[in-house]
Amino acid sequence: MAQRALPLPAARLGRAVRSAGAPTAVSGVVLLLPDGEPDSHRRPSPLSYAFQLPLARALARAGQDDGLAAHVVRYRCRGWNATDAQLAADAEWAVEEVVRRYGDVPVCLAGHGMGGRAALRAGGHAAVDSVLAMAPWLPEAGADGSDAADGVEPVKHLLGRQVLLVHGTNDARTDPELSFRLAERAKKTNRDTCRFEVHSDGHALRQHRAEVTALAADFVCGSLFGRAYARPVADALAAPPPLGLRMPLAAGFGKSLRG
Fold it and tell me: Counting beta carbons within 10 angstroms of the beta carbon of residue 253, is it exposed (0 to 12), middle (13 to 18) or buried (19 or more)?
């Protein structure tokens, strides 16, 4: 007798990551969206979830004085799945869940790989203040049939959000040029868009992890709580394209952020 496939679990928030010294009240939330696959209905990989935990802890520490909570989202399945855009739908559900739990607090969507695409797609939710897309997986125009009528990933809904993209120049899994093109289109609609390039780094951004983590923390805390951005981030947001969209992430970023 053939066994019936188990139903996929519902999307859910992982346990809140908060630093010990944080205030009791949550004043802002960052939702970390793990990487996934273009097409798959399999259960999410526990490794992709675990990969986001160190960043969640680092962000919680950086924002502890402001009451920041970090959650790593657990998807229903690991695939985007064309027009279903399941990872983006799960990201939108997670924002709704944040509103239900914490009320009217600012939210940052921070995704890696396919999670970066989900963050960008779900970034138009009314509760989202900022979007951080790290090595985002983006299709060639019209390649998967899931994009807007003009054949490219939509960007107009990002108006009013702070948007940062980060991409390694040696990424063999997701094309850095595609994230540049998206950032270029987004900048025309939304001036508060910038992009950093991590020279010689790959998809996982491991080679310069300390700098990428410091950049993420500076952006999340600045966009959610109004902290002054580090000089390179402020310059990237203010610079016209392509300068502010090909900003190199300097070695040692984070050691003297405002020097």
Answer: buried
Structure confidence by residue, pLDDT tens digits, 225-236 = 999 999 999 999
CB 142 within 8 A of CB 154: no
Model confidence pLDDT, tens digit, residues 27-76 = 999 999 999 999 888 888 888 899 999 999 999 999 999 999 999 999 98
Do 35 and 55 form a contact (C-beta atoms < 8 A)? no
Is residue 145 over pLDDT 80?
no
| Sequence letter at residue 242 | P
CB within 8 A of 46, min separation 6: which ones? none
Q: Which residues pair with 28 in a beta bridge?
A: 68
| Strand ranges of the sheet holding 107-112, from the earlier edge strand across to the other edge | 12-13, 68-74, 28-33, 107-112, 128-134, 162-168, 193-198, 247-248
> Which amino acid appears at position 220 of this protein?
V
